[in-house]
């Protein structure tokens, strides 16, 4: 449209009419005279608006999805973090339960033998003083630990203390080739000396070359003078093999130790010896023998078999 005087007058007129309609519509409320026209416009343009909205909604949904995706990602990351923390806590709880079980077993052993013990944790292994089978524990002189004290766990004899620092101590394990301890056989009281052989069974030399020994017999520590370095009655192991005596003055045994020297964690240092020898009371209860099943075979006579002394016709 060309910008003329008439066009300008028409524009002013249209604006005046628009304001007039708005005023009438507002004052009329629900009874507005233009309500019919508005409904007609809605009916005419509604489908168009709906189509436009349908076209726009996927875009809005996509934006919301992207925003929600970020939130879901953050939530997933948080859940994964919580899950990892729970797994770590569960693992820690499992380890704590294992250590509590070990400590409980040590306390039962100490109670059976009337040993006064100081609990300790194995914190290192190695040849700190040139020994091949040693461990370091986290207690030392400040905890009342002294050289030549017996070390045990819930299963039996672990070793003896060889070096003591302010807060740590070195333990020579019973499996070390330089380790020797006096032993006593359960029930028979036969005496001997057990020596370590690394990852092999302990070697025991009985003083009596004619001693009656069999596989499965058990040994405990005999004890030392003034209970240093060994207190009496600590379980040592089970006889796994007996060498023929051959008329020797001593008899050689091979003993599987009760303690697994490669799985040490919680141990106890005997800081107070028992007032009397516990003898065999600290040994674990012997497993009950499993009875050998007896098979009974019943023979049923064959009716067609010939009877002795009678000929078939």
Would you give an account of this structure?
The protein has helices at 5-28, 35-113, and strands at residues 116-125, 134-137, 150-152, 157-164, 169-173, 180-185, 191-197, 200-206, 218-221, 235-242, 251-257, 266-272. The chain is α+β, with helices and mostly antiparallel strands. A 6-stranded antiparallel barrel has the order 1-2-5-4-3-12. The chain is 33% helix and 24% strand. The chain has 2 helices and 12 strands, in the order H-H-E-E-E-E-E-E-E-E-E-E-E-E. The termini are far apart. The chain is elongated. Strand 7 (191-197) and strand 8 form a beta hairpin.
Instruction: List the total number of helices.
Output: 2
Which oligomerization state do the chains in this entry correspond to?
Answer: single chain
Structural class: alpha+beta
Which term fits the overall shape?
A: elongated
- Sheet of most strands: 6 strands, antiparallel, barrel
Poorly predicted runs? 41-50, 52-60, 62-69
Radius of gyration: 46 Å
Portion in helices: 25-40%
* Average of pLDDT: 79
Keywords:
313 residues, alpha+beta, 2 helices, single chain, 6-stranded antiparallel beta barrel, 6-stranded antiparallel barrel
Q: Which secondary structure elements does this structure contain, and how are they paired or packed?
A:
Elements: H1 5-28, H2 35-113, E1 116-125, E2 134-137, E3 150-152, E4 157-164, E5 169-173, E6 180-185, E7 191-197, E8 200-206, E9 218-221, E10 235-242, E11 251-257, E12 266-272
